[in-house]
């Protein structure tokens, strides 16, 4: 069974691109469309913002006006509250999308863990342990993708630099770079 991913997303300077709080400005349509697709695919979306009262209602309406609806607002999902038997202050999610998130790459579609997990990696050629992958931003035009053995005693690693051909990295370039690194890794086995 494929369980849904949970996305907790901030509002100000994330969904709403206004420069000054609490103004409403241009919507981040790239992110809104991404979240609408994730919701349509069965994933759960939580609005996670510091706004309260009327400002919070305004934020929810703003998003609803662009077709983005939430499973929860500043709260955990009901099924998680029931499962864990409490409702802790921190919202639990697989992904936290926020203007303060250091891994956000400007101009890039958001990459889901599910999409990365679909790239099949063979066990480490040196020790047989399954590897993991991650990426780090170099600048707006480049990022490094790593595939590394999960065994801390093993040093098997593949590094691939992904460079854009059109100004800012996009989803296809990121996934393509990860696939290239995976092919290099898998050829070593």
Helix and strand topology:
Blueprint: E1 6-9, H1 29-40, E2 44-47, H2 53-65, E3 72-73, H3 78-84, E4 95-97, H4 113-117, E5 131-139, E6 142-149, E7 157-163, H5 171-187
Parallel strand pairs: 1-2, 1-4, 2-3
Antiparallel strand pairs: 5-6, 6-7
Quick take:
The protein is an alpha/beta fold. It contains 5 helices and 7 strands; from the N terminus they run E-H-E-H-E-H-E-H-E-E-E-H.
What is the CATH first-level class name of the largest domain? Alpha Beta
| Strand adjacency order, main sheet | 3-2-1-4
Query: How many structural domains?
Result: 2
Low-confidence region ranges: 102-109
CATH topology-level name of the largest domain: Rossmann fold
Largest sheet: 4 strands, parallel
Helix/sheet category = alpha/beta
Q: Look at the structure and name the CATH superfamily of the largest domain.
A: HAD superfamily/HAD-like
How does this model look, in words?
With 189 residues, this protein is an alpha/beta fold. The chain has five helices and seven strands; from the N terminus they run βαβαβαβαβββα. It has helices at 29-40, 53-65, 78-84, 113-117, 171-187; strands spanning 6-9, 44-47, 72-73, 95-97, 131-139, 142-149, 157-163. It has two domains: 6-101, Rossmann fold (3-Layer(aba) Sandwich); 114-187. Mean pLDDT is 81; it is low at 102-109. The longest helix has 17 residues, at 171-187. The protein is globular and about 60 Å long. The protein is 29% helix and 20% strand. The chain starts with 5 loop residues before the first strand and ends with a helix.
């Amino acid at each position: 069974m494929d369980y849904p991913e949970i996305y907790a997303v901030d509002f100000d300077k994330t969904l709403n691109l206004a420069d000054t709080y609490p103004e409403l400005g241009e919507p981040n349509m790239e992110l809104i469309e991404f979240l609408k697709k994730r919701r349509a695919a069965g994933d759960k979306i939580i609005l996670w913002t510091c706004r309260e009262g009327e400002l919070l209602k305004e934020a929810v309406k703003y998003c609803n006006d662009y077709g983005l609806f939430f499973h929860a607002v500043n709260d955990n999902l009901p099924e998680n509250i029931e499962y864990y038997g409490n409702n802790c202050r921190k919202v639990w999610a697989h992904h936290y999308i926020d203007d303060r998130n250091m891994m956000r790459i400007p101009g890039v579609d958001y990459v889901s863990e599910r999409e990365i997990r679909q790239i099949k990696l063979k066990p480490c050629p040196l020790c047989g342990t399954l590897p993991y992958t991650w990426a780090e931003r170099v600048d707006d035009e480049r990022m490094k993708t790593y595939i590394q053995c999960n065994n801390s005693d093993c040093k098997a690693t593949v590094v691939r630099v992904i460079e854009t051909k059109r100004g800012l990295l996009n989803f296809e370039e990121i996934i393509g770079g990860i696939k290239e690194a995976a092919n290099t890794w898998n050829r070593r086995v």
